[in-house]
Amino acid sequence: MASILVTMIMMIVITLIVLGFAQVTRQNQREALDDQLSTEAYYAAESGVNAAVKFLTTGNNSALDIDTVGQGQCQTFINNQPTDAVPGLGGGGVNVLNTTTNTQYTCLMVDTTPSSLKVSPLTQADATVLHLKSSSGNPFKTLQFQWNEETNSPFDTPGLNKCYSTGDTANLPAYGSWNCPFGLLRLDLVNASNGDVSNAAFDSNQYVSSFYMIPTYSNNSPSLTVNPPVQKVFVECALGGACTLTLNLPGNSAEYYARLSMVYQDASNLTITATDTTNNAVNFTGGQALIDSTGQAQDELRRVQVRIPLATADGTLPQYGLQTTDSICKQLADGPTINPTIDSCPLDP
Length: 349
Known about the structure:
By secondary structure, the chain is α+β, with helices and mostly antiparallel strands.
């Protein structure tokens, strides 16, 4: 009897050990499969984004008023035809990438008239140009700029938060002496009323305004009236939050270009919102498209959300880069003197 009991106990123990190893093996296999399917779902979501980008940047589709962001709109852009009032990719299984693993992008939402424009990150090394145009055609009344501190800022300690105060009239410090977690935002705002971004417009102070937005912890709610050409303004910032400034505009233009860059510190992100002369929130057109894509592989789902520029003039430029819609002429001279008759570029170089 003792031998039988010992044998039964050993068999039970061995069985439990085998079952345990089998469970661990199945769990590892499942985790490996989940990782593989998750990767496939991610790339399926990326495929949806690429399909939307191709659609928006081909022909005149970028100028269309597309808004399929909302409840019940997951497959509107996928299934609608390109000629529909709200155009789309045409359906017919264009979103199915692999029938064996059921890999597809199940939800693809596009908004070419978002209620805000975002840049993430906004750095010191480059300048970002954004096209600001009201989708309703009503002139802008206000523009609000909000930017966050740099992620993992070396100055993110209360004892080192030495930002400026509104009464400080001293010159800005050297780069190495800046101890504020927020950077200084530089904004060059160009009035593009009637699409006029010519050299003459740039030469006129009424078209171009430059702002140096200096972060402060003073207890105020900054609201600034545009007074070109150059203004320095102190902007209230919240520790662990964001700096916010509202620009009051003349109310005579529904279109601007904004050139944005950071000084001293990068910003993890920047958001622009606006109101028009009817006091309604503005939806921007021709600036950015918001694309929201969800990919699926069997029972795994991954979601990707991106913003892309729609205007060809938008995007990131070198800090001291030159961009123009006019011709650019370069004059080169060789020798100790310059021929005085070569003092201008021909009209048609």
